[in-house]
What does this fold into?
Amino acid sequence: MTRNWIPAYVGMTVAALAISACVSTDTSTQAVAAKASFDPSLVQRGAVLSAIGNCRSCHTSDNGKSFAGGVPLRTSFGTVYSTNITPDAQTGIGAWSEADFRRAMREGVDRAGRHLYPVFPYDHFTHVTDEDDRAIYAYLMTRPAVHAKAPANELAFPFNIRAAIAIWKARYFKPGPKHYATRGEYLVDGLGHCGSCHTPRNLAGAEKSGQALDGGEAEGWHAYAINEKSQSPTPWTVEAMTGYLKRGYHAEHGISRGPMAAVTDELADVPEPELREMASYLVALMASAPKRTPTPPASLAGNGGAALYAAACASCHDDSQPLPFGGMALPLSMGVAGESPLNLLNVILYGLPPAAGSTGPVMPGFDGALSDAQILELAAWMRARFTRNGPWPDLEGALRKARKHGAEGSRYAAGGNGMDPASIEEKR
Amino acid sequence: MKLHVNGKVHEVSADPDTPLLYVLRDDLGLNGAKYGCGLGQCGSCTVIVDGEAVFSCVAPVSALEGRKITTLEGLGTAEHPGPVQRAFIEEQAAQCGFCIPGMVMRATALLAKEPHADEASIRKALQPHLCRCGTHMRIIRAVKKAAKA
It folds into this structure.
């Protein structure tokens, strides 16, 4: 009897070690499937979902390889650099299992168990279904691996302490997935994360609850309200919104520029029925808008904007050619009718150059040709002349903001974000 | 109204919504700047206003009172060409010549800010300019020559 307890203890220790290996939070022991084993149709679905979620824009730097990270995402807390999500084992997610990936999307936690900064919009991606996560994982794991380490984040104390994110999460993050009434709502609120730009944020950088899609800001551009608060002069139809998302412009609404240009560049590759679902949801939100009463325009006494418009703008914008052959008919433009003048000022200052390597509309910038005072005069004149929305409250402040973003604004004035030609090729 | 062009003040009578290009050519006889499109799409009307290259076809003359305007004629003459013009002559960077004044003005504005601009900067600066004859490579060589000088 006394000789039998040694093998029993050894046995229990071995068993305990074996059990602890199974429940380890370090998931590196879980198998990472070889590239070739992913089902091609799953990868294809993942490509479409990844285009809706627009992984590419945040995870591909200017002139960088697709998904290799390194994009500086400026927040009011500092700059966070996007990570490499190519299947490179050392610098990317090559060693990540599907469970690791799903945890990042669902809980905002990386493979090592560290909290991710919510600049990665897991407050929306948490609602992506397991099935869709599987497809996106398959797509990402079959991309070319790129060896590239993202620069270190530039965050001041205490924001550079990742553990502190747990406090933010406790207050502002509720893991999903939510169940949605329509696929359109799922695509808009979950994967599409439209609210990340189109919803106003509080001082903690979280989206303000109860104000979903009321309008927000991204990288020096205003993201218009796309719910019942939409200021669109012409009511959106599902057809129009679907076309806009697909092509990046609509002759009766405007042109997708700023960070939205990268979004519609990606959505161009998404099958129309999916875009139609998203459009149906958004148009339904907009349809519930209360009837707007026109607001009297500001007085134009002493405003020389008419002469400025006639010489600088009319030759393209009063042409009878619709977009994209002529300038946007400004009475229809969100730039002039929208709740913020910021985008209009960006476009007047920096123009709309075509995306590098592709054809596109060309509008010259007027920074240098027109002084600040003249630009303000012109914007005020257009607002009064072309809309029934009343004057913007702080045009001077908006112009200061547009100038502050300067070169960055013009980076986004071009469609797309300067992706390297090789990655554009692989998209096709 | 008073316009400050190539160092001289001109008294000009024009509607405030007249593009500068028309005033330069019709009122002041400065034909260097050309009408290519009237839409700010081709660059052949380019002049320099307070150091910035500007499309004169979409620049309202009412906006330019008191600002320093420089046209091709202000850079030099046939007998005494300016440095950028000299580089264009040496590289024989012209075929029909229609786009050239605009190219010279844009290059001049660039080199005033970046005296030793590299080819990438030069290409980026000249991007809004169109040339239908195909003189692009000579133009780039000419601007590079002027940048190295």
Notes: The radius of gyration of chain B is 15 Å. Chain B touches chain A at residues 15-19, 38-41, 49-55, 57-63, 127-128 (CB under 8 Å). Helices of chain B lie at 20-27, 83-90, 100-113, 119-126, 136-148.
